[in-house]
Amino acid sequence: MAEAINHDPRLAVEIAGIRFNNPVIGASGTFGYGLEFAELIDLNRLGGFATKGLSARPLSGNPPPRIVETHGGMLNAIGLQNIGARAFIKEKLPPLRRYDTRIIANVFGYSDDDYVEAITILNDGEGIAAYELNISCPNVKEGGIVIGNSPESAARLTEKARRASTRPLIVKLSPNVTDVTLVAREIAGAGADCLSLINTIVGMSVDVNTRRPRLSYGTGGLSGPAIRPIAVRMVYEVARAVDVPLIGIGGIACATDALEFIIAGATAIQIGTANYYDPTVTMKVIDGLSAHCQRDRIKALNSLTKSISTE
Ligand SMILES: Cc1cc2nc3c(=O)[nH]c(=O)nc-3n(C[C@H](O)[C@H](O)[C@H](O)COP(=O)(O)O)c2cc1C
User: Fold this and answer.
1) Whole-prediction pTM value?
2) How many Cα atoms sit within 13 Å of 228 on the Cβ side?
3) Closest Cα partner for 240 from 306, 177, 174?
4) How far apart are CA 210 and CA 234, in angstroms?
5) Pocket lining: 251 vs ligand 1, CB cutoff 6 Å
6) Average pLDDT in the 153-179 region?
7) For the segment 240-271, what is each residue's pLDDT rounded down to a tens digit?
8) CB of 35 within 8 A of CB of 45?
9) Is the shortest distance between the CB of 30 and ligand 1 below 6 Å?
10) Which amino acids are annotated catalytic?
11) 74 within 8 A of 273, measured Cβ to Cβ
């Protein structure tokens, strides 16, 4: 049974009918299958987390080196390594169900059919709150970003996933486009219940001694504080273009960072890279949001969503 926790009621948010005790969510790929964090933080305090991208069949990802540190962030080219949707249901979901936190299954495929197959398998997994469609991974040659950067193919996949899914559908946007609102509008129009943004930004790092890329894949996805202003700008733009709720992601490391996204238009936020250097960062952000509400006498944090003034 989940332990009784005194959640701060001011932080509760609802997205597509799902209630989160607070808007702080562990980001896909940086939070394992959730259980890895159970000894480091109290998962019952966490609003939710997104699993590593799950595919219909297990994947081994790209060969090493797959991670490089950069100023204010990191480049990764993991390449969707995961245990597969069936093993997730069998091995990870039963212990996860003991915790009072929303489980978001992040879904990946190389083709539309792959995504639909993974969702169909996951529909049998009791305890999953929603799906997050990763159509924005830059570290694979098919699927991912290839689908997410084209408004037409993103809309087509969203429609198929919406039909296959028995749960709310979050679609994760790629920042590697000129105008993020074009694809956001198409995806929202195709039936997405929520949009999350951003995934990583394509980058590269070169070893000057070997004159080879420092990642085996060549390029990688940039994440961490270095990308935050880009992510905030995109949340601001998308909030003006669509009516569905948004989850802001990108370089969040403290409550002030989270508030930037919320004021720009996000209902909830995800924290990724910061978990690597501080595994307790999610708890600190929750406490910081409560302190902000207390200090400014805010009765409901969600009253700040899209409260930005540009005059
Ligand atoms: C090592 C690593 C693996 C990731 N794997 C996934 C993934 O499987 N699916 C996905 O949608 N996003 C994945 N992401 C992207 C993150 O969820 C997040 O969108 C991105 O890192 C930006 O947030 P951050 O700056 O807080 O890390 C990954 C990021 C990192 C650093």
Assistant:
1) 0.97
2) 23
3) 306
4) 36
5) yes
6) 96
7) 999 999 999 999 999 999 999 999 999 999 99
8) no
9) yes
10) 137
11) yes
